[in-house]
Amino acid sequence: MTDLDLSPRPGAAPARQQVLAQARMEARLMLRNGEQLLLAVVIPVIVLIGGVTGADRIGISLEHAAIDVFTPGVLALAVMSTAFTSLAIATGFERRYGVIKRLGSSPLPRSGLLAGKVLALLLVECLQVVVISAVAFALGWDPDPHVFGAVLAIVAGTAAFASLGLFVAGVLRAEATLAAANLIYLLLLAGGAVVLPISAYGAFGDVVRWLPSGALGSAMRASLIDGAVAWRDLGVLLIWTVLGTALTARTFKWE
Amino acid sequence: MPDASPAVAVDGLVMRYGEKVAVDRMSLTVERATITAVLGPNGAGKTTTLETCEGYRRPQQGSVRVLGLDPVRDRRALLPRIGVMLQGGGAWSGVHAMEMLDHIARLHAHPLDTGLLAERLGLGECGRTPYRRLSGGQQQRLGLAMAIVGRPEIVFVDEPTAGMDPQARRTTWELLRELRESGVTVVLTTHYLEEAEQLADQVHIIDHGQLIASGTPEELTRGSSATVRLVVDKELPVAAEAALRASIDRWSGENGVGVRSISFGSRTLEDVFLELTGRDLGTAIGSDIGRDVDDD
Fold first, then answer.
1. Is residue B248 located within the same domain as residue B151?
2. A7 touches chain B (CB under 8 A)
3. Is residue B3 included in any domain, yes or no?
4. Residues of A in contact with B148 (CB under 8 A)
């Protein structure tokens, strides 16, 4: 009837192929989802344009041109939205729909699943950087970048926010994760020194600089405005990564 | 893979959820290249037993071996060799049916041709349909396809035809039989007696976490000594039934034997279940609260 040969011929694909397949799948699903795309690209671009055009009118005093201050901040925001909010929501629903359980009986090991997720995040972030930078250049962005510092900041920020996102997704139900991840995103956007520099927060600056959002924003601004590597902020992100990973490892349920 | 260990060997398995004993000193063996049905009402412990074989749960007491391996300790070695069909779900809601199947195929070294497999299971037309828009039966068949696409030695299928229309059920049965002919061991749970009777070489009936009977469908449906079974070679007219009853009544009256019941028809696994548990499977399913497993 068909040429299907059902006789057993088991075997796992090479680990690299498995991780790439997982990364490709996750990235595709992330980009296909309208809400996630809104979070990943549309909101950051709106914040960028709104910030640049609004800064003059409201008269926020910045030490540099508005576009030069806002672009690194918006890139940090984009990293936060993908590594934290999108990842948490996607993982929460993967638990709910039994995807993680299903993959748990496939040859893909859990380390491979995690590697695939991280790779997918980095892929989506590359696209975000391209789109946001293009808009920024169109608005007259003229950076003096320390590229290595910026890459370090993005990687460290991704690690910190992804570990925290997985923690949220691992302990809450899918709907609660959706709500919490969006709420935390909004709170950090408004008060977490992502888009606006620490100096804009006055006395609270000493607090927000210890938040992962403040550290990531500062590290991005240091690398793209001052052309420097912000080791202190990278250290803060590392601490959050260790904390988030420890919490996730203790609490995460795969089903 | 020429080792002689059975496909599955469960020995004295005990699994509890809090106070509730889900599996109670279960022991059973599954031979290779057979279809084995684990039959019982919802809540009997079928899924828990299966998930312990699949390595999702660690035996609290007793041991489980699959292809001679410990499903928890030897997980990485075992997983490529088994296929698992979950009772439901297992796919992203926005993923297209074929995309999902192709993805699982890519995790394996020698997967089946996904196009042929999908066609074989009647999924050819819904390849671009998002998972959440598939009908229940289509989702079930996709689940089966994902379980066998990696060419496993054993497939564990949990309620494979629940909610399927008769056509899809036949297609699924045919495929499961073909898997057996190809040398694959099939372990399925079901609460459909017909499914066990039609499909299985070996049936294990479980209830309240305990194995209450094992055997081939023929062995299980063979009568006990207090039962007299009369098999005739043609369909009887209605009048014959009355005549038979009358002559049995006469004979039993003369010989002082009380006849408890006379039934016409054939003995089924349903009868066996009723005898063993005192309940019929329909009410057992209706009255048992909850499912086999409380997720999370």
1. no
2. yes
3. no
4. 6
Residues of A with CB below 8 A from B140's CB?
none
Residues B252 and B147 in one domain: no
Is residue B140 located within the same domain as residue B247? no
What is the structure's pLDDT at B286?
A: 40
Confirm whether B12 is domain-assigned.
yes
Please name the residue that has the structure tokens 């050819």: B124
Q: Is residue B44 part of a domain?
A: yes
Q: CA angle at residue B107 from A112 to B169, to 5 degrees?
A: 130
Q: Is A208 helix (H, G, I), strand (E, B) or coil?
A: helix
Same domain? B210 vs B197: yes
Domain of B261 in residue numbering reads as 230-266
The amino acid present at A157, given as its one-letter code, is: G
Residues in chain B within 8 Å Cβ distance of A106: 79, 104, 107, 150
Name the residue facing A109 among B76, B152, B153 (closest C-beta).
B76
Residue A173: partners with Cβ closer than 8 Å, 6 or more residues away? A92, A96
Q: Are residues B40 and B143 both part of a single domain? A: yes
Is A109 near chain B, with CB under 8 Å?
yes
SS3 B15: strand
Q: Cβ of A106 under 8 Å from any chain B Cβ? A: yes
Tell me the C-alpha distance between A135 and B95, whole Å.
31
**A225, two tokens:** 């405005």
Rounded mean pLDDT of B32-59? 93
Chain B residue numbers with beta carbons less than 8 Å from the beta carbon of A174 are: none
Same domain, B276 and B247: no
Q: Would you say residue B154 lies in a domain?
A: yes
Query: Within an 8 Å CB–CB cutoff, is residue A11 touching chain B?
Result: yes
Residue pair B96/A32 in contact by the 8 Å Cβ criterion:
no
Q: Is A34 on the interface with B (CB under 8 A)?
A: no
The answer to whether residue A62 scores a pLDDT higher than 50 is: yes
The helix or strand, by DSSP H or E, that contains position B156, with its residue range, turns out to be strand B154-158
Indicate which CATH number applies to the domain containing B103: 3.40.50.300
pLDDT of A164 over the 60 cut: yes
Q: Where is pLDDT greater, at B138 or A57?
A: B138
Partners of residue A108 in chain B, C-beta under 8 Å: 107
| Nearest-Cα residue of chain B relative to residue A170 | B296
How near does any CA of chain B get to the CA of A26, in Å? 10
Residue B282 is predicted with a pLDDT of: 55
By C-alpha distance, which of A114, A67, A63, A127 is closest to A252? A114
Query: By the CB < 8 Å criterion, does A251 face chain B?
Result: no
B124/B240 same-domain check: no
Please state the domain count of chain B: 2
B99 to chain A: closest CA residue: A25
Residues B108 and B241 in one domain: no
Q: What are phi and psi of B61, to 5 degrees?
A: -145, 155
List chain B residues with CB under 8 Å of A11: 80, 108-110, 150
Residue in B with minimal Cα distance to A1? B120
